[in-house]
Structures are given as structure tokens and as C-alpha cells.
Specification:
With 126 residues, the chain is α/β, with parallel strands linked by helices. It is 16% helix and 36% strand. The strands form two sheets. Strands 1-4-3-2 form a four-stranded mixed β-sheet. A hairpin with a 3-residue loop joins strand 6 and strand 7. It is globular. The two termini are 24 Å apart. The mean pLDDT is 93.
């Protein structure tokens, strides 16, 4: 197994609000991809054949954003996750754990709540 994760979906209650939040903090544009059953906004990745992708997703009654339950996804915070943290509160989120060193070998992490109430995390290499 090359990677433990191959795809992730972040639940939303308001897809447009969540899109604006993530586009603001990461300074990227998310790509729309809607199906009859759900609406998604895909995060850009450098190489779709080898990169791990994910999306914001809205599907009424299927997803439930949570600040306490379920898995916590660590998003790429390289080269310095503090740059992203500095934009979170202005975009409507809340920092729960500030930039914290894991170890000199494993880099840094932080945890935040997004506009949808999801508990999310950032990781950057040393």
C-alpha cells in the first residue's frame, strides 16, 4: 500500500460558505463537481495520478459535520502552517490547537474548526 489515504470528503452544511472558507485559508480555487445525489468542490492536486485528493461535500441527510466525532483529517500545511492559521479566524473558523511541534523529525501540527463545525488539522514537514 503506497498511502493509507486515497481520498477524503469534508462534510458541509453550506457548501458555498465552506468553499469560500477553504479557498480563503489555502488561497486556491476549488473545482465544482456535482452529481444528482451530491455536490462537491474538489481541492486542487499537482498530479491526479499520484496525489491524494479530496473534496468538500454536501449531501443532505448523508453527512454530518462534527467538531468532536469521527476522524480528523490533516491537510497539507507546507511550507509553514502558520500562514494558513493566520487566515482561519478572519475566514470564519476557530483555532483550537495553535502551531505545535510534534518533534524535530515530524514537523508541526495545528487543529481548527471550519465554518461548518468540522474539526480539522494541518501538518507541515520540519
Amino acid at each position: 500500500m503506497k498511502n493509507a489515504v486515497s481520498w477524503f470528503e469534508i462534510p458541509t452544511a453550506d457548501l458555498e460558505r465552506a468553499t469560500q472558507f477553504y479557498e480563503t485559508i489555502f488561497q486556491v480555487s476549488l473545482f465544482p463537481m456535482d452529481t444528482p445525489n451530491l455536490k462537491m468542490r474538489l481541492f486542487p492536486i499537482d498530479d491526479p495520478m499520484t496525489g491524494i485528493g479530496g473534496a468538500l461535500v454536501y449531501a443532505k441527510d448523508f453527512y454530518n459535520p462534527s467538531a468532536t466525532d469521527g476522524p480528523m483529517i490533516y491537510l497539507n500545511g507546507n511550507p509553514d502552517l502558520q500562514d494558513i492559521l493566520d487566515r482561519i479566524e478572519g475566514a470564519g473558523g476557530k483555532i483550537v490547537v495553535p502551531k505545535t511541534q510534534i518533534s524535530p523529525e515530524h514537523g508541526y501540527m495545528a487543529v481548527f474548526h471550519d465554518t461548518e463545525g468540522n474539526r480539522m488539522a494541518l501538518h507541515c514537514e520540519p
